Amino acid sequence: MREKAIYILAILAALVMIPNLKTVFMGLPDEAMQGAIYRIIFIHVPAAINAQIFFTVSLVTSILFLVKKNFLWDSISVSCIEVGTMLVLVNLVTGSIWGRNQWGIWWAWDLRMTSQLMCFLLYLGYLLVRPAIAEPTQRASISAFVAIFAYADIPLVLMAIRLPNVRTQHPGPVLETGTMAPEFRAPFGLGVLAVFLICTALILIRQHQETAQREIDSLRRELHSI
Amino acid sequence: MKRGLITALAIAKKDLQTELRTKESINASASFALVILVLFSFAFDLGREELYAISGGMLWLVFSFAGALIVNRSFARELPNDCLDVLIASPAPAWAIFLGKSVAAFLLLFIVELISLPVFGLFYNIHWTDRFGGLLLVMALATWGITVVGTAFSAVTVNIRLRELMLPVLLYPILIPLLIGAMGTTTALLGGEPMFGQAASGEALASLRLLVGFDVIYTSLALYMIEFILIV
Amino acid sequence: MDITNLTYLFYGYSAAWIIITAFVFLLVSRGRRIDGELARLKSLVADKERR
Q: What is the CATH number of the domain that holds A44?
């Protein structure tokens, strides 16, 4: 059942992604100001959007774990956070490469870059602390606690980087007023969908591993007690 | 509720009393803060203007390092002789234990800050007395933010391996927005800008709102959720 | 079309796919390790119970 779902998701992702990549690279015209490089947006922004989606899922499942104490929720949270952190990394790296081309520098402390970097650091902390906890129930509740604390920080980070004393590159249209040309919208939406499908498959695989790991832990304890 | 508050006060008093007798974390923290302040003078060679421009950042880096040292001991202090198990098993609610420990850590860090601030002004020739009231307000708000999140993570990490390493890894990323706000306001205040009134630029007020928001969000989250952590 | 532009576009997409592939690779290797460990433990438990 699970394996079937993973295969179906992977096939669907390929079906969405391959024609979409063809449209992005061969069908769409170059952007007036940036030339060819703007095509990075079709992986850059979907990665960020999906990361936010998975972090939000992890918030919900973390709360559910604390309330219900069902390890299913814990395994979903950790899988979502791992995949989400990977996506934030994709977002940061592609953004940095775009910045090198367009701004001439690898890194600028602009609003979005800073907030994404903080997001990355927050969830990196989660992923680092988790393996340090041996006892399963303790590990799951502490992880849920950290995940909720990390998620609560995101709006505060967004507030902090808008303070007047924080220097930025002012990508105003990107943050507030920008709109996308109509012919870009469909490939953009399909890009989001493709990343979502791939990552859901990855999350299912990861979640299965987490369950197997718990089974290993309980077998170890059983062996000790025999 | 009222009984919980009384318990919290008792725990804060107990923590402060042990600390005042042994002075283990406050000595370490204050001397550490001083060493960093001295080190900064070798790290940067700055003119007056530049010095004022980074003064808030320097102060809050020192305070947050000192804070990590203090909150690290907050729950770890209860580990010898299984005191922590006794505390958890006692009828005191988890949030009261947590609140008491946060208050104690807050006062300790505040003392360290009050020691380092004049030293900072003296070493770097910075006038901090003009805006002392505003500085106190910012220090109180930001210190509470540091200690409430720090004590929560101190409770989280107390039973895990690599406790001393994990606390900063978790703590500092969460504190970033708070520190951005505190650093900005402190720099503005040390530069002679008033916080309220006509002459204020609004920058200080915006940061102040952020600090209050941070404190409210994390105090309520931690008080509500600490139960799930301390029981295990 | 500007050629440096295309070069960086290539860098961008390769970087994204390298990260994703590396993640999948890590996932697969961890999966192998977990499967192996699980099989080993199961046979151990079965062994001990038979005795």
A: 1.20.120
Say yes or no for a CB contact (<8 Å) between B169 and A148: no
Q: What is the 3-state secondary structure (H, E, C) of B216-231?
A: HHHHHHHHHHHHHHHC
* Residue B100 scores a pLDDT above 50: yes
Please check whether residue B150 is in contact with residue B71, taking contact to mean a CB–CB distance below 8 angstroms. yes
Q: Are A46 and A132 in contact (CB under 8 A)?
A: no
Neighbours of B97 (CB within 10 A): 24
- In eight-state DSSP terms, residue A40 is G
Q: Say what the pTM is.
A: 0.87
Structural domain range at position A117? 2-225
Domain count, chain A: 1
CB-based contacts of B132: which residues, under 8 Å, 6+ apart? none
Yes or no: say if B56 and B186 are a contact pair by the CB < 8 Å rule: yes
Q: Phi and psi at residue A35, in whole multiples of 5°?
A: 75, -140
ipTM over 0.90: no
Q: How confident is the model at residue C4 (pLDDT cuts 50, 70, 90)?
A: low
Show the tokens assigned to B93: 């609610």
Mean pLDDT of B178-198: 80
Interchain CB contact of A130 with C (< 8 Å) = no
pLDDT of B205:
79
pLDDT of residue A177: 53
Q: Backbone phi, then psi, for A31, in 5-degree steps?
A: -75, 145
- In this complex, whether B and C touch, counting 3 or more CB pairs under 8 angstroms, is no
Q: Please tell me the distance from the alpha carbon of residue A32 to that of residue A55, in angstroms, as a whole number.
A: 35
* Residue A63 near residue A131 (C-beta atoms within 8 A): no
Q: Which residues of A touch B229 (CB under 8 A)?
A: 141-142, 145
Q: Which of A121, A163, A166, A168 to mutate to test the interface with B (most CBs of B within 10 A)?
A: A163
* Contact at CB, A66 and B180, closer than 8 angstroms: no
Instruction: Provide the terminal-to-terminal Cα distance of chain B, rounded to the nearest Å.
Output: 23
Q: Mean pLDDT for each consecutive 10-residue tract of chain A (226 residues)?
A: 85 86 75 72 87 94 93 94 94 86 77 83 92 87 93 85 60 54 79 90 92 88 79
pLDDT of residue A164: 64
